[in-house]
Every structure is written in structure tokens, then in C-alpha cells.
Amino acid sequence: MVGRHPFAMVNRRGPIDMEALNTYLHMGGHGGFIWASYGAVLVVLLGLWAISRRFVQSSQSELQGLNVDRPHHKAKAADET
Amino acid sequence: MIFHKYANPTRFLKLANAVQPWAGGATVLFFAVGLYFALFSSPSDYQQGETVRIMYVHVPAAWMAMFCYTAMAVAAAVGLIWKHPVADLAARSTAPIGACFTFLALFTGALWGKPMWGTWWVWDARLTSVLILFFLYLGYMALANAFDDPARGSKASSILALVGVVNVPIIKFSVDWWNTLHQPASVLKMDGPAIHSSMLVPLILMALAFKAYYIWVLLIRIRGEINGGKIRALRLRQVHGGPPPVRDGEPQGAN
Questions:
Q1: CA–CA separation, A1 and A80 (whole Å)
Q2: Confidence of residue B26 (pLDDT cuts 50, 70, 90)
Q3: CA nearest A45 in B: which residue?
Q4: N or C: which end of chain B has fewer CB within 10 A?
Q5: Which tens digit of pLDDT belongs to each residue from B132-146?
Q6: With contacts defined as CB-CB under 8 Å, which chain B residues touch A28?
Q7: According to the 3-state scheme, what is the secondary structure of B80-100?
Q8: How many CA atoms lie within 13 A of B118 on its CB side?
Q9: Cβ pair A49:B216 closer than 8 A
């Protein structure tokens, strides 16, 4: 198919071949369905990864806060000072 | 048995620390190569045209939806039978990942179905059983978090996970047992894959990307659940004002 390879969309002179890019994005008239599928995968997987990371980071900081409040930690901190 | 070795969350975290960067790297690498093949290098189908490219995300998502449920049920069984704390946390951590894969399988399936079948949805055996799988994941998560005592939540949700696992073979064989609009298996067949290698390679690469992503996010989430167990134990200690009930790294109320 014309313009299938990404490098085929770049002219030797520099600017991107818009016609080839449009043909590629159009995907034979089914671009909406295909790009929506890949977009959904991107959004859901990136979203879950970000939520999971935030979950760990917030629990880690909460845990550190609680550990600081623990009596033997306080005693240890006092000994160090 | 080896899984008893990793019943200690601190020991498990050591393993997770070693595996997690590799899982993250493998995810990025497999997605980069897989997407290149899926979107640029692979040919269009002689019947379906360019819409066949939806297969490279739809099929791995559907495989992972079933895999995650099976993994969740196994982890739930190990947690129930052997009171393995990390297995319980693995089951809890797998549920949202599996639910996301199931949602993606349903969503991308609808987007593939509209141009190919002329409809977004039909109540055939395959689609309906996958929808039930999605509800099982939601039910598991709701039940696991429905109790103040996480141990009771884990027990109730583990039983649901074990009951619901009967749905996995129903999904797999639904296309053989009933007349469905959904096509039969074309990759995981007794007589070998029925699709050309130019399409099989990107499909396998994307499947590996999804698998690596699962391991990566699972390890991140288990770490969060272990922290959650420690936080609950420390809060209990603060409330009761007693001596430390456990060693550091042992989540309380997680099983």
C-alpha cells in the first residue's frame, strides 16, 4: 500500500508527503475504528500504569509518615540528636 | 514448595525489585516493535482490508483477560488454602489489570464488529461470556473492598474468583459449542495457527507486550498492597497502643 512505511511519507526534500500520510491515516476508510482501538489501548494501559504508580507512591509516603510517628523511631531520632 | 518461600512480603519485594525493571523494559521494547509491525509492516487482509489491524490489540487483550482471571483464581485458591499473604495480594492486584484487558477486548471487539459484521454488539455466546467475565472482575473488586476487615473481603472475593473460573473454558470453547457470529480460534489450535506468519509475528509480539505489561503493573500494584498492609498494621498498633504485633514487612489483615 502507498505510504505504508513511515519513511515513505517523508519526501527527500524535507516536508512530509501529506497525501501519503492522509492515505495511511484513512486506513481504507476504516481509520476511525482502527485508531479508536489503538487509542483506547493507549489510554487504558497508560492510565492503569499511572494510577498504579500513584497508588504505590502515596502508600509509600503514608507509610513513611506513620513510621516516623512510631515511638521507637522517635527514640532513635532522639538518640541521634 | 517454592511459593512458600515468597510468602514473606520482604523476600517477595526483593524478587520484585529485580524483575520489575526488566518487565518494564520488555513492555516498552515489545510494544515498540509490535506496534511497528502491526501498524506499518504487516499486510492488510484480503477480505477485511485494514481493519485486520484491530486484531493486534483485540486478540492479545482477550487472551490476557482470560489469563488474568485464571491467574487470579489460582492466586485466590493458594491464598485460601495455604493462607499465603502474597498470593492474596497478587489476586487483588490482578483484578483491575484483568478488568482493563477485558474492557479493551470488548471495546476493540465492538470497533472491529461494526465495519465487519455491521453491528457493534450481538448477544452471542463468545461476546456474552466475555461480558460476564468483565462483571466477574467488577464483582471481585467490589467484594474484596466491601469489608472493613480485608481478611474477610479476601475470603469472600476468593470464593467468587473460584466459582467464576468456570466461565474461562466457556469463553474459550463458546465458538465451538454454539453457533456464534464470532470466528473460531485461528491461532491456538491443535493443528497449528491458521494465519500467515506476516500477521502471526506482530500478533505474538503484541501478545508478549501485553504479558510483559501485566507482570510490570502487577509487581507495582503488589508493592502498593504490601504497603497498604503495613499501614493497616501500624494504625492498629497506634489505636491499641500495644507492642509491635509483627515484624516489619509483614502485612496484617491482608489474608
A1: 71
A2: very high
A3: B100
A4: N
A5: 999 999 999 999 999
A6: 44, 49-51
A7: HHHCCHHHHHHHHHHHHHHHH
A8: 0
A9: yes
pLDDT number for residue A71: 60
Interface test with B, best of A54, A55, A67 (most B CBs within 10 A): A55
Are B72 and B98 contacting, i.e. CB atoms less than 8 angstroms apart?
Answer: yes
Cβ contact B40–A6 (<8 Å): yes
Query: At B215, is the secondary structure helix, strand, or coil?
Result: helix
Domain ranges in chain A are 38-81
Are the CB atoms for A69 and A75 separated by under 8 Å?
no
B220 CB-near residues (< 8 Å, 6+ apart) = A49, A52, A53, A55, A56, B20
Number of CB atoms found within 10 A of residue B157's CB = 26
Task: Give the C-alpha distances (Å, rounded to integers) separating A57 from A50, B135, B218, B220, B228.
Answer: 11, 29, 15, 10, 11
Residue B76 CA: distances (Å) to CA of B13, B18, B165, B245: 19, 24, 11, 25
Nearest to A58 by CA among B222, B23, B228: B228
Taking 3-state DSSP, the helix, strand and coil percentages for chain A, each rounded to the nearest 5, stand at 80, 0, 15
Q: What is the pLDDT of residue A47?
A: 97
- The CA distance from A60 to the nearest CA of chain B, in Å, is 6
- Name the grid cell of B174: 463458546
Please tell me the least confidently modeled range out of A37-51, B51-65, B72-86: B72-86
Q: Which of A37, A56, A68, A70 should one mutate to test binding to chain B, selecting the residue with the greatest count of B CBs within 10 A?
A: A37
Q: How far apart are CA B91 and CA B221, in angstroms?
A: 10
For chain B, what is the mean pLDDT?
88
Inter-chain contact B220–A53, Cβ cutoff 8 Å? yes
Q: Which of A65, A79, A2 is nearest to B40 (CA)?
A: A2
DSSP-based three-state secondary structure for B191: coil
